[in-house]
Design brief:
Two copies of one chain form a homodimer.
Chain A: H1 4-11, E1 16-18, H2 21-27, E2 41-44, H3 48-61, E3 65-68, E4 85-88, E5 95-99, E6 104-107, H4 113-121, H5 139-145, H6 152-155, E7 162-169, E8 174-177, H7 190-194, E9 202-210, E10 218-225, H8 228-241, E11 244-251, H9 252-260, E12 273-280, H10 284-299, E13 305-308, H11 312-323, H12 325-329, E14 335-340, H13 346-360, E15 365-371, E16 376-382, H14 389-409, H15 434-447
Parallel strand pairs in A: 2-4, 3-4
Antiparallel strand pairs in A: 1-2, 5-6, 6-9, 7-8, 7-9, 10-12, 10-13, 11-12, 11-15, 14-16, 15-16
Helix pairs in contact in A: 8-10, 8-13, 13-14
Family (chains A, B): Belongs to the FAD-binding oxidoreductase/transferase type 4 family.
GO biological process, one term (chains A, B): respiratory electron transport chain
InterPro entries (chains A, B): FAD-bd_oxidored_4_C (IPR004113), FAD-bd_PCMH (IPR016166), FAD-bd_PCMH-like_sf (IPR036318), FAD-bd_PCMH_sub1 (IPR016167), FAD-bd_PCMH_sub2 (IPR016169), FAD-linked_Oxase-like_C (IPR016164), FAD-oxidored/transferase_4 (IPR051264), Oxid_FAD_bind_N (IPR006094)
């Protein structure tokens, strides 16, 4: 009797298969680094047909498949720790076509986000979804988690930019979902069901992305805020009068770290909260309007101090105060959480959550920042130098339980943009009801009757 | 043994139930007027609990339910012709709340679209989805069909404006989908699955709608085009330079009807195609840019003539040439089709389809117009005065087969924004594959195991 892997190699003699220990480790994990990689092998198909053939083999031989992109995920969605076959889309990474009238770019799933940006710019357009891992993450992975990032307030999540998807479902069928149409009211929109399903329903093998005109010239402002209520007041005032491209928040604790890491202080004095905002500034009128809104917020006592960037260099320096936070925390091996709330609910949540954490886990320093204009908070818990890794993870997981319970009280979500994967799976019920999770299991069973695709991610099959 | 209806009345003594012949006829049909209404009764619940109780009763007694909004649909999605209980949301029509920070309006499903517009304006904001049936259609029905309309090119379909949905699923469970969050990557996004599912998965009992700032001031232009290729050339040129609010198309045949119905001619001479476009014109610079694009198109030979509205009255007069078409065709009892293609594919499709129809059905006059910026064409077939109704419908249905086959060749959709309902059901396979339809049946079975909700709409249960 042949092993499943020998069988696969025999059926698909042209398929690139890797089984070296180094490859198994490399392709078996993502950025979470919490699970020990243990895949059966790595398959690197070059065509849609090969992906389908692998899925047919997997269904016949009951081998689990982990679809794999850039593996920059932070939720363990692409981890293969249980003898799964990793199906890496890394070789399917080309631009397939550009349509000037429809303004769409058709790509293979393994292409890096940055290469999509480059291809769009070559046609004088932009693909507006963007975040720090752009050089390594793949568009297929972006689609699998409905990735967000820093411009969501203006452009929405990945979901908004998908005109069509080719997907190999768990049952091996190739689905051509929506085929680039703007309007299509012909039955259930499975494109949207697939987006954000973290590889548990199907494998994206081709995507048609919408592009758009580049944004107009913009202005960057840094604001210091005296208290939490000011956060939503300032946001509402700015959004009412300006066309926002970003509205980001961080605390004095986050500022401390980023300054220690070499960023330049831009506002003097002690302030508990900061906002970096960027907005359209096409002419003097819009610049004046921005100063008016700023003046109004100062007058109301919502803003204690502020700086408007006067040059591109200064704009970059202000942005560094926000964008440099992640890097400044790396030495502390942070445990990351990524949660969301309705925007208006953020102050109420921030009034209770940090205090609860401080009380229960006084040893842990917690750094808060995020995309406040989307109600999205990133929470980084720093490992004390004298605490063992396992001890730290255990404390953080207990802290996440507290976080999940508090989020539930405030109607929030345990995952804003990182996905559920393995990391958040124990907390899914804080965000989705038992009835919804039962429906998820049922829907998965329809697309993937044998439970082949990414089993154990998001939820455990019944 | 009690009848199911007696049983319902006994279980829910407070439920408003209508059984008069006039009510059965009124609530049993939509704007299609093709099926003879024959519902069991009409239930008008006032609360979510009553909707859930009705669904539990329906599951126990195996009574089919037709969810019912404003019944302005054009695809028979709200028709009750087989002894179903019509569950009308007409009494659940209130605004429940407004959130100034999140800029959301929470409403009951039976509220008319126009009332949503009014409520948004009271807060200085807009709900940007709009179409002619605004006074009668309900937001629940808009969600069920992912309704589009005239501003999709700027604002997208209904889907883009739904921050949260409360839904009673076919199995009776109350689902709270997404709860107003901007970012929420925590498992399958059933909100998007429900949108456009035409009442076959669940009943929307509450919706949280996103609002936005009103658009800037705009300019309206009418263009005459010499040929089909010009259509996409002009569109691409305008979209590259201007921020479009609308880009609508109609033919000389459509113009003939609307002029005969009292509209004023705005461009002299004979031209085969016309475009009405509206775009942001905030200042002189953007007005100049518009004239430059216009000049460029004339120079290229893509535009034969054009008019820029110089006043609001003239803008309205130009718009009437497009918006007055539907009304001008009413006397001809038109058979309506509503299809879509990728925008760039529209000219190729229009080169073959009208000719095919003219060849096969020389007696039928066909009027073409639509939202060309969305690849959406409305097709109105006019009934010859001397043709019997049944004969006309039969010819039109055969013509729709030809239409569906041609759409399939061009990668189009048999329903752009009206939905599938009963009218388009025979043609669903021209747009969706057999594998996709099988998945739809499976997903419906998960949400509605007994097949209670709107059976026979979109597809027939297995």
């Amino acid at each position: 009797m042949t092993t499943p892997l020998t069988d696969l190699a025999r059926r698909l003699p042209g398929l690139r298969l890797l089984t070296d220990a180094g490859d198994l480790e490399h392709y078996g994990r993502d950025w979470t680094r919490r699970w020990t990689p243990a895949p059966l092998a790595i398959a690197l198909p070059a065509t849609i047909e090969e992906v389908q053939d692998i899925m047919r083999w997997a269904n016949e031989r009951h081998v689990a498949i982990v679809p794999s992109g850039g593996r920059t995920g932070l939720s363990g969605g692409a981890v293969a720790a249980n003898g799964e076959l990793v199906l890496s889309l890394a070789r399917m990474n080309r631009v397939l076509g550009f349509d000037a009238v429809d303004r769409t770019l058709t790509v293979q799933p393994g292409i890096a986000l940055e290469a999509v940006h480059t291809a769009a710019r070559e046609h004088g357009l932009i693909y507006p979804v963007d975040f720090a891992s752009r050089g390594s993450c793949s568009i297929g992975g972006n689609i699998a988690t409905n990735a967000g990032g820093i411009r969501v307030i203006r452009y929405g999540n990945t979901r908004e930019w998908i005109a069509g998807l080719k997907v190999v479902a768990g049952n091996g069928e190739l689905l051509e979902l929506n085929r680039g149409l703007v309007k299509n009211s012909s039955g259930y929109d499975f494109r949207h069901l697939l987006i954000g399903s973290e590889g548990t329903l199907g494998i994206v093998v081709e995507a048609t992305l919408k592009l758009t005109n580049p944004p107009p010239s913009s202005q960057v402002m840094l604001l210091a805020l005296p208290d939490l209520d000011a956060l939503t007041q300032v946001f509402a005032a700015f959004r009412a009068k300006l066309s926002l491209q970003a509205f980001e928040f961080f605390t004095d604790v986050a500022l401390k770290h980023v300054l220690a890491n070499g960023a330049q202080r831009a506002i003097d004095g002690e302030h508990p909260y900061y906002v970096v905002t960027e907005f359209d500034a096409v002419d003097e009128a819009s610049q004046e309007r921005a100063l008016e809104v700023f003046g109004h917020c100062v007058e109301k006592g919502w803003v204690s101090d502020g700086v408007v960037a006067q040059s591109e260099a200064q704009a970059a320096a202000l942005w560094r105060l926000r964008e440099g936070i992640t890097e400044s925390l790396v030495p502390y091996k942070p445990y990351k959480n990524d949660v969301s709330l309705r925007i208006g609910e953020v102050p109420a949540f921030l009034r209770v959550m940090p205090a609860r954490l401080a009380q229960e886990y006084p040893q842990l320093e917690v750094v808060w920042y995020g995309h406040i204009g989307d109600g999205n908070l990133h929470i980084n818990v720093l490992k004390p130098a004298d605490m063992a890794d396992a001890d730290f993870i255990a404390q953080c997981e207990r802290a996440t339980k507290l976080l999940a319970a508090t989020l539930k009280e405030h109607g929030g979500s345990i995952s804003a943009e990182h996905g559920i994967g393995l990391v958040k799976r124990p907390y899914l019920e804080s965000t989705r009801s038992v009835a919804e999770i039962a429906l998820m299991r049922g829907v998965r069973k329809v697309f993937d009757p044998n439970g082949i695709l990414n089993p154990g991610k998001v939820f455990v099959d019944a």
